[in-house]
From TrEMBL, chain B:
Organism for this UniProt entry: Dyella acidiphila
Entry protein name: Response regulator transcription factor
SMART domains in UniProt: REC, Trans_reg_C
Superkingdom of origin organism: Bacteria
4-aspartylphosphate PTM sites in chain numbering: D52
DNA bind region: 127-224
CDD domains: trans_reg_C (cd00383)
Response regulatory domain mapped to chain residues: 3-117
SUPFAM superfamilies: CheY-like
The OmpR/PhoB-type domain, residue ranges: 127-224
Key words of the record: DNA-binding, Phosphoprotein
Length: 470, 224
């Protein structure tokens, strides 16, 4: 479950739209923050400059007042300017406190200079301290030698900071949350279509070149890609058809002269006496011609099977009985090659099939297994129900096996594995099996790990033949 | 001497059939088109018919269907350029007795005609025993013996021997054996039938005895 979710997320993440959207979102957030940061910084700077100017003006004004007026003015000033925070302190020439909330001359503060920003706790402590971390502070000598310290902070700066941080949060949430949701929604369409394309390619990869990828009316990137692939498939199908057509034509056209050649050889053979030295040669020639004719017959047979789309002539076939007949037919051959030939057939497995073709397919698989298993080996033919509605036919041998990378190719016309060159045969047997399996919608595959090959044919059982009945 | 009606529009094929059958001591009459072929086929003096399925006038399937409807039982070997399995099934269902795909080996064709002729002759009395030389097959008890020696045969071996014994002295090709004994019509590889024959031979022929099952070079087997 968790795995599935993780996989789902990873699929989402890999989608182009998601990635673009996320990259764009991150870019947008960063850029927005830079912009707002810049505004914040500029505003603060401006406010500080204003404060500095204000403090200077105030100091200049306060210096011009005499002692009584000064204290009144300072108190009034604190009270009147409620919106901002103000504090003051009067110190004697030795920087000892005399009046005001600033109880200690702030360390490091230069007198008669521009205002500086100092940490709040260095200037004023206790309940009177404002909530801001820094204060603008200025100190100046009064005409009578006293030192006046003014501290000021504007709440506007903090407010502006607040506004901007709010703006950042809202901005981010308004951008990212709907963005991500929108991205997921946008992604669904393309993902559904990718899935459609995926399922359309399955039969193509299995060799059914008549299938095409779905193209919608939108004409977007996926459609263009699908159209390109479809064009490619058209071309491949045409070329395959041409190759097949040429093969078939050659096979078809050469059959007649070869058959004539075969009958001439036969006549010559009949006329020669047993002792004639040419007899053996003629016999070899005839055998070779037979071989070629068998190959052509097989080629044409594959074409015939491949072109057959109809499933008429399908009847109920008992797999167990079919296997028994196959076993009976091939047992002497296996015995001749000193092979152990086993049969294990579950009874009552019925499929819809053409009985002769099914027999031919199984016969080819068994014949092949017998051919490639060295003397003393073992070939096992079996059928059993492998799941609800499927039967599992297996032809297993302990011969050289078929390497993983060749397993797909062996079903193709004329393919022969590297290890099989010394054995006779035209390499078309398995193609015939593949064509028959395809006609029946049976699944063919090759298993086995090193020690021999297992040819597996999975058949769909007749519909009403549910395990409950068995 | 058997007399055969050849209904075939292709000159070369017709000549091949005629020559090959003549070599087997069979006389032939040749007809070019379907309608005429049908008229001739109604005549009672033919022992068998070779029939091309694609004919001008009347196609082979219709011809054989109408022939059977009129109660004419002359054996028919159908010859067609179409190798399709369904085509063959249709042909046999319409009333043909055997089916051969073009191009065919003439000896194969002749062997099939001879089997048809012999089957025709055998049909009258219901036989229960087959005898060839000192070989005897009892079809009721399903047992076989050579001379005084009882042969223990597997079911397949019994069917194979029965088929061979039904047509003694007659060349039977591997394809014909495979079709008749196993009821199958595909290419099982050359040596599969040979292996079965070799097995049967080991049981039928004891040491010192003359071999009854003979291998015919280039074509097939013959019993006796």
């Amino acid at each position: 479950m968790a795995n599935a979710t993780a996989r789902n997320l990873s699929i989402h993440w890999r989608a182009t739209t998601s990635r673009l959207l996320l990259a764009y979102g991150v870019f947008f957030v960063i850029w927005g923050m830079v912009l707002l940061g810049f505004i914040y910084w500029e505003t603060l700077h401006y406010l500080e400059t204003r404060t500095d100017m204000q403090l200077k003006q105030q100091v200049a004004y306060l210096r011009s007042l005499n002692q009584e007026h000064l204290l009144v003015a300072l108190n009034d000033y604190v009270i009147l300017e409620r919106t901002n925070y103000n504090a003051w302190g009067l110190f004697d020439a030795k920087q000892h406190w005399q009046y005001g909330d600033v109880l200690q001359f702030p360390a490091g503060l230069k007198i008669d200079s521009d205002s500086v920003r100092l940490p709040t706790e260095q200037v004023i402590a206790g309940p009177l301290a404002p909530p801001t971390p820094r204060l603008s502070v200025i100190a100046a000598h009064l005409p009578n030698g006293q030192i006046l310290v003014l501290a000021h902070t504007t709440r506007i700066a903090a407010r502006v900071g607040n506004i901007i941080s709010h703006a950042v949060w809202w901005g981010v949430s308004f951008t990212l949350v709907p963005g991500l949701i929108g991205g997921l929604i946008l992604n669904r369409g393309p993902r559904r279509r990718i899935r459609q394309i995926e399922s359309a390619t399955q039969p193509i990869m299995r060799g059914d070149l008549r299938q095409r990828l779905p193209v919608s009316h939108r004409g977007d990137e996926l459609d263009r890609l699908a159209a390109i692939v479809n064009g490619m498939l058209d071309q491949i199908e045409r070329l395959m058809g041409e190759v097949k057509g040429v093969c078939d034509n050659i096979a078809h056209d050469l059959r007649t002269p070869l058959t004539r050649l075969r009958s001439q050889l036969y006549r010559v053979q009949q006329e020669l006496s047993e002792e004639d030295p040419h007899t053996a040669m003629i016999e070899r020639c005839a055998a070779d011609v037979d071989e070629v004719l068998a190959r052509f017959r097989a080629l044409l047979r594959i074409s015939e099977l491949e072109d057959r789309r109809r499933r008429e002539g399908f009847v109920d076939v008992d797999l167990g009985q079919t296997l028994e007949r196959v076993h009976e037919l091939y047992a002497p051959l296996a015995e001749d090659q000193q092979l152990q030939f086993e049969l294990q057939a579950e009874a009552g497995l019925i499929v819809q099939a053409d009985p002769d073709l099914l027999f031919e397919a199984l016969g080819n698989l068994v014949g092949n297994a017998i051919k490639f298993t060295p003397a003393g080996g073992r070939v096992a033919l079996s059928v059993q129900q492998s799941g609800p509605g499927t039967a599992h036919i297996e032809v297993a041998d302990n011969g050289p096996g078929i390497p993983e990378e060749q397993r797909h190719a062996v079903w193709q016309r004329f393919y022969r594995g590297d290890g099989s060159r010394d054995a006779s045969g035209h390499g078309l047997g398995l193609s015939i099996v593949a064509a028959i399996a395809k006609l029946h919608d049976f699944e063919l595959r090759i298993e086995g790990d090193g020690a021999g090959a297992r040819m597996v044919m999975e058949c769909a059982l007749r519909a009403q033949d549910s395990p409950a009945l068995a | 001497m058997p007399h055969i009606l050849v209904i075939e529009d292709d000159e070369i094929t017709a000549r091949e059939i005629t020559l090959e059958l003549a070599a087997h001591g069979i006389t032939t009459e040749r007809v070019h088109d379907g309608a005429q072929g049908f008229q001739r086929a109604l005549e009672p003096h033919f022992d068998a018919i070779t029939l091309d399925l694609m004919l001008p006038g009347m196609d082979g399937l219709t011809l054989v269907t109408q022939l059977r409807e009129r109660g004419i039982a002359t054996p028919v070997l159908m010859i067609s350029a179409l190798g399709d399995v369904d085509e063959r099934v249709r042909g046999l269902r319409a009333g043909g007795d055997d089916y051969l795909t073009k191009p065919f080996a003439p000896d194969e064709m002749a062997a099939r005609i001879e089997v048809l002729l012999r089957r025709q002759r055998q049909e009258q009395p219901a036989q229960t025993k087959l005898r060839v030389a000192d070989l005897e097959l009892d079809m009721i008890s399903r047992t076989a013996r050579r001379g005084s020696r009882e042969l223990t045969l597997l079911p397949t071996e019994y069917r194979l021997l029965e088929f061979l014994m039904r047509y003694p002295g007659q060349v039977l090709t591997r394809a014909m054996i495979f079709e008749s004994v196993w009821g199958l019509r595909f290419d099982p590889g050359t040596n599969l039938i040979d292996v079965h024959i070799a097995r049967l031979r080991r049981k039928v022929d004891n040491e010192g005895e003359a071999s009854l099952i003979r291998t015919m070079r280039g074509s097939g087997y013959r019993l006796g």
